[in-house]
Amino acid sequence: MREMLVVENLYVSVEGIKVLEDINFSLDYGEIAVLFGPNGSGKTTLIMTLMGFPKYKVEKGKIYFKGVDVTDKDLSERAKMGMGISFQRPPIVRGVSLKKLLTIISNGQKEEILTYAEKLNLTNHLNRNVNEGFSGGEVKRAEILQLLMQKPELIFIDEPESGVDLENIVLIGEMTNHLLGRDQRVKDPKRSAIIITHTGYILDYVNADKGYILFNGKLLCRGNPRDILAEIKKNGYRRCATCQ
After folding, report:
1. Backbone φ, ψ for residue 93 (5° rounding)
2. What is the mean pLDDT of each run of 10 residues along the chain (244 residues)?
3. Helix H or strand E segment including 83
4. Rounded CA gap, 58 and 61, in Å?
5. Short-list 27, 56, 44, CA closest to 85
């Protein structure tokens, strides 16, 4: 079986409002897809639905992960099966230190936690509450650190460049590439990802396999992510709506 994720005829609503319509795509094992689209087009809704957050209601369609129908499975079940997510705006978790959270999700891999915390310049943040008082770049780095410890097979990353400076973009980009196994000679055949991006900076560090444009809740374009980004910079998103 080549396909890790299959989405068929997916319709999604949020609080009674239709957001996604007739979404169809698949993701192979070891494949990385980039999702482009203007604000409000449904990008975050898509990955939150795939992850199983209850606010996002599947009105129609199916989601298959590793050959299993997960459409009705809850978030915790999907996480146990190997899904993980990096939020665009993750919450503050008071009363739980970053180190404690990492220890739980890594089954106590303390040496590995310290190694990656040092690489991500987060050693001094381990004993602080999760995301409390963190800068934008620190929050994004902490999200990557959590995924490194969780080791999911399918990763959703929501705008890794959002709200961070150029120095952080470099570190986040390099560590995201490492997380996805793309800094190895042979790419990780088990780890796949969907990355949402507005700027496309992440493509300077992660060699993605394909790109999509989500516009007004529909997937309109598919192709080489760098070609899609160049077209967006030249003509904007509405061009895709006219030549779908």
Report:
1. -115, 95
2. 92 96 95 93 96 97 98 96 93 94 92 95 95 92 95 95 82 91 68 92 92 92 92 82 59
3. strand 83-86
4. 7
5. 44
Structure tokens at 180: 């996805």
Residue pLDDT, tens place only, 122-131: 999 999 999 9
Q: Which two tokens stand for residue 94?
A: 């008071």
How many CB atoms are located within 10 Å of the residue 186 CB?
Answer: 7
* Rounded Cα–Cα distance for residues 237 and 65 (Å): 30
DSSP 8-state assignment for residue 1: -
Q: Three-class SS of residue 186?
A: coil
pLDDT tens digits for range 7-48: 999 999 999 999 999 999 999 999 999 999 988 899 999 999
- The string of DSSP codes covering 26-82 is EEETT-EEEEE--TTSSHHHHHHHHHT-TTEEEEEEEEEETTEE-TT--HHHHHHHT
Contacts of 103 (CB under 8 A, 6+ apart): 109, 110, 113
Handedness of CA 159, 164, 170, 171 (dihedral sign): negative
CB proximity list for 105: less than 8 A, separation 6 or greater: 146, 149, 150
